[in-house]
Amino acid sequence: MFGPIGTGKSTWLNTRFNNSLYINLLAPDQFRAYAARPERIEELISANPGKTPIIIDEVQKVPALLDVVHFLMEKEKKLRFILTGSSARKIRRAGVDLLAGRAVLKTMHPFMASELGISFDLNDALTMGMLPLILYSDDPKAALDAYATLYIHEEIQAEGLIRNIGGFVRFLEAISFSHSAMLNTSEVARECQVSRKTVEGYISILNDLLLSFSVPVFTKRAKRHLVAHSKFYFFDTGVFRSLRPAGPLDSVHEIDGVALEGLVAQHLRAWATYSQQSVELFFWRTKSGNEVDFVVYGPSSFHAIEVKNSDRIRPKDLNGLRTFIQDYPEAEALLLYRGKERLKKDRILCMPCKEFMQTLIPDKPLPGISA
User: How far apart are CA 255 and CA 347, in angstroms?
Assistant: First the structure.
């Protein structure tokens, strides 16, 4: 089970499995013991029969444990393991193959609005994000401000992933301007005064630490010339807001706009991950400038979704969706906005963002015309 720090992996497992054998590699004594001798876990299991499953928290701290787990699974078929991690980077660097396909991979994301129910507040979500670690802290703002520092010290600096911490901090600030936008690594490199290759390496680290993700261009049966670059998103809107510098010349409406798009993106990504169907997330943009923020594509889902940070709908807001459904009449078109009413404009359903996110539930169809 992978997921960024603060998504609640350990809390959920401790609540769900109260008879487990629990190894926490964040604890210094346990880290030292298993880093020195990973096979010690076999002795622990032998001394605790009936304790199941065996949970190893933050397994990327000692990647060699995966080889031992693999051996034990082959030796004793009844053993059940749950391994959690907030980074896949060190595991891959160690050449470990995630149990040769024997493990089921799950990912935990920040909260969805449907999980919070009536306590979900869109304005709060746009500023503080949806991380359980932040929302349930005594001082959410202070916890959010410290989150990037936590990651830099606990995951990046401690693991020796980069040498120039100062350069990486400048990169985090520069890349925050690319949230919800097509990623231009050359521009980011110029902004933080490092090489393009270095920026590409930093982005790879963000992805491996599950702090960011990209959304590719939808190119199936393309009838127009499309852009080539993917769009970049931080995994949580609150984390984006904590990294994005703001001053007197910055437009609050503009920052809220990209934050809103990012919030929808993380909801769609969580919904796709948690659902039991194969669904992929894309965006669509022609070289002439027509764009749709999200295309959700799967065996039983084909939706084009545009997000607008406005409480009213202007005719030009529908242009991208109208162009898309000309090329793909099979698609269901949806515009999300900050208003309070559902409206139907030709084939396009206009729906309040908050309502969309609150009714977005894994394994259920996307909220919309056919829902």
Answer: 30
Nearest-angstrom CA–CA distance, 110 and 132: 7
User: For the segment 77-99, what is each residue's pLDDT rounded down to a tens digit?
Assistant: 888 999 998 887 767 665 555 66
Residue type, 214: S
Give Cα separations from 210 to 2, 22, 149, 178, 206 (angstroms). 8, 24, 15, 17, 6
Convert the pLDDT of each residue in 142-155 to its tens digit. 999 999 878 777 77
Q: Per the omega criterion (within 30 degrees of 0), is the bond before 53 cis?
A: yes
320, pLDDT greater than 90? yes
**Helix pair 196-208, 185-192: axis angle to 10 deg:** 100
The token pair at 150 is 């936590």
- For residue 346, CA distances in Å to 13, 104, 294, 333 come to 47, 44, 20, 10
What confidence score (pLDDT) does residue 305 get?
A: 98
Which has more confidence, 155 or 255?
A: 255
Contact 179/234 with Cβ under 8 angstroms? yes
How far is the C-alpha of 337 from the C-alpha of 29, rounded, in Å? Answer: 51
Q: How many CB atoms lie within 10 A of CB 8?
A: 18
Pairing of strands 212-215, 231-234: antiparallel
d(CA 337, CA 307): 6
Helix extents (H) in the chain: 9-16, 28-36, 40-47, 64-75, 89-93, 113-116, 122-128, 132-135, 140-151, 165-175, 185-192, 196-208, 237-243, 252-274, 319-327, 353-358
Own/partner pairs for 191-197, CB < 8 Å, 24+ apart? 192/167, 193/167, 194/167, 194/170
pLDDT of residue 248: 63
Alpha-carbon span 169 to 340, nearest angstrom: 39
What is the side-by-side order of every strand in the sheet holding 231-234? 181-182, 231-234, 212-215
Q: 């304005």: which residue's tokens?
A: 123
Nearby residues of 87 by Cβ (< 8 Å), 6 or more positions away: 60, 155, 159, 208, 209, 210
Nearest Cα to 143, choosing from 46, 237, 238, 15? 238
Give the CA distances from residue 13 to residues 42, 271, 358, in Å, rounded to whole numbers and listed in that order.
Answer: 21, 20, 25
Count of CB atoms situated within 10 Å of the CB of 240: 24
